[in-house]
Design a protein that fits this description.
A two-stranded antiparallel sheet has the order 1-2. The two termini are about 15 Å apart. It is mainly alpha-helical. It has one domain. Strand 5 and strand 6 form a beta hairpin. It is built from 13 helices and six strands. Helix content is about 65%, strand content about 5%.
């Protein structure tokens, strides 16, 4: 059972981060709009220009939430610094990509390097627990897996950021599952950081949901995805997070396989969906259109953007519940 300091840490990290995100997001939106950093909302008949790079508000609020965690839990310093270091490096890569688009092969390589704070501070345990097998020793291999983990989670979340609220909504659900598991495992500092991520996503979702008032951009999605990867490593719950992210990973896998490898969205000629005159969205019947999670959801017929995002969130909720169940049944990552 958590003591008072542990409860206070988690509650403070959540509350402060939520308020910081809620206050900062409209300011970031106004600044981006003033400087012409906007993007078209392509899934609506009226192509409204929406402020981009809302991820800057997320970066600021997560930094504040991390500082709160360090103040309340001084023993969490190394773990907290490693976490926010990963987030800020991935966010910086996202900023560059939003302003000067990176190549499809460059982005995964750079995001993999965002794991350096974890490796340099040695805030990882090279003895992960695998279901049905138990603890395995990966002393030499694990650092390489850390590189892969951050690259996969950051880019998988980035590829899920395709509609109003889709990234923030699905990540909030995953973050809630991670927070629950880390609390159950007694990882208080990790739970505080996960609670901060949950708070940032809930607050940002308010502005990013349909109809979106701001987009997170790669600044937000790469940073948030990297945060999930960092939490999985720092908390020793790699398998749990892998299960929770099944929809994101499937979306990335099928998308890459259907277009023949790593490609930027702007390089793909065929779009996976078509916007109809009545505002509904249907799966593209054209050959060569990428196979994505959205396209699979639309297999039964056209839907509204709200219904599509709701479907994405339901799938993520199911995978997140399975992740918590995995922890409870298998003891994955349990201290």
């Amino acid at each position: 059972m958590l003591d008072l300091i542990s409860i206070l840490s988690i509650a403070c990290a959540f509350t402060v981060t939520f308020l910081a995100t809620f206050i900062a997001t409209p300011f970031v939106a106004a600044i981006m709009k003033r400087h012409g950093i906007t993007g078209r909302d392509v899934h609506k008949r009226k192509k409204t220009e929406i402020p981009e790079m809302g991820g800057l508000a997320i970066l600021l609020s997560l930094t504040i939430g991390t500082v709160v965690t360090i103040v309340v839990l001084p023993n969490s310093l190394r773990q907290s610094v490693a976490f926010i270091g990963v987030v800020l490096i991935a966010g910086a890569i996202g900023i560059v990509d939003d302003l000067h688009p990176l190549g499809a092969r460059t982005k995964p390589i750079l995001t993999a390097l965002a794991c350096l704070p974890i490796l340099l501070l040695r805030t990882y345990n090279p003895f992960p627990v695998i279901p049905l097998i138990g603890s395995v020793r990966l002393t030499l291999l694990y650092p390489l897996l850390v590189l892969v983990a951050i690259a996969v989670t950051s880019n998988a979340v980035n590829m899920m950021d395709v509609m109003n609220g889709s990234m923030a909504g699905t990540v909030a659900i995953v973050a809630a599952a991670i927070t629950t598991v880390l609390i159950l495992s007694g990882e208080v500092s990790g739970a505080s950081l996960a609670a901060a991520l949950l708070a940032a996503m809930l607050a940002f979702y308010y502005f990013n949901r349909f109809p979106a008032k701001i987009f997170g951009g790669d600044t937000g999605s790469l940073a948030v995805g990297a945060a999930l990867g960092a939490l999985s490593i720092l908390g020793g719950i790699e398998t749990v997070v892998l299960v929770a992210l099944i929809p994101q990973i499937m979306n990335a896998f099928y998308g890459l396989a259907s277009v023949g490898g790593l490609r930027e969205r702007r390089e793909i000629l065929q779009r996976p969906v078509i916007l109809l005159r009545n505002g509904l969205i249907k799966a593209s019947p054209k050959k060569g259109a990428p196979v994505t999670l959205v396209r699979l959801i639309l297999a039964s017929g056209p839907l509204s953007e709200r219904d599509i995002v709701r479907g994405m969130m339901i799938l993520t909720a199911v995978s997140s519940m399975l992740a918590v169940l995995t922890y409870l049944l298998m003891g994955v990552g349990r201290v």
